Amino acid sequence: MNTTPLCRVDWAGSAVDIETRWIPASAADRPLLVFLHEGLGSVSMWRDYPALLCQALDWHGLVYSRPGYGRSTPRPAEQHWQPDFLERQASEVLPALLRELGVHQMYREVWLLGHSDGGSIALIHAARHPGSVQGLIVVAPHVMVEDISVRSIQQAREAYLQTDLKARLARHHQDPDSAFWGWNDVWLSPAFRDWSIEDLLPLIRCPVLAVQGSADEYGTLAQIERIGALAPLATTHVMAGCGHSPHRDSPDELTQAIKAFVARLPRHGG
């Protein structure tokens, strides 16, 4: 991967720096795959999976850390994210980043690959900006809040307060409190309990591959089943025995599922 300088964008009237990393394909006219990380993720938390997948597809890649994460501008300590935080990332931050980088002028096709919260952001973006992307791959996405999600996020809070989780997150975030509390506080807020994006799924007009592990500790298979039932061009894939991070648990299986899905689409055949 090639690290680039921070990209400065305007978000709701404030300048924020966004950490990015580019992965080149063999030719300029290959599609671009934009990676959207999980609720505690960052560029470095993906490890080598984006490079391995892009190599397998021969696609360009763009990996970035959302504001509050990684080496991007931290969340101010006094700022509390609201229940619409995923919608704001999908409809404000991501479009601003793509615009600033000139992505749609440089690449003939743009796809999103989102993990967990990043998968939710990808789905929202495709519904709200239907002409912006040609396809989605969502891994362990959330389309609604389940009891299992809340329980696991409560356990994460306890681990952050009582174990070395903060120190481990500090390897990937310049301000681990920014990343952790921004995510944890909003997910555990009573106002977020009724959050859902199920009404947006029928608005998605591009192909969607929705992947989830059968042992996901943050959500049941109902998440991708709803996508399969409501998004017009959705395909679901269950990875047996995998937890919340299939790209870490079984990266080869995930890559093969993605390759097979892309190969079936007319614009990517062969």
Automatic annotation (TrEMBL):
> Is this entry keyworded DNA repair?
no
Which species is this record about? Hydrogenophaga taeniospiralis CCUG 15921
Cross-referenced Pfam families: Abhydrolase_6 (PF12697)
Q: Which InterPro entries match?
A: AB_hydrolase_1, AB_hydrolase_fold
Q: Does the keyword Hydrolase apply?
A: yes
Listed GO MF terms: hydrolase activity
Query: Domain of life here?
Result: Bacteria
Residues in coiled coil: none
Keyword annotations: Hydrolase
Alphabetical list of SUPFAM superfamilies matching this protein: alpha/beta-Hydrolases (SSF53474)
Q: What's the protein here called?
A: Alpha/beta hydrolase fold protein
Question: Which segments constitute the AB hydrolase-1 domain?
Answer: 33-256
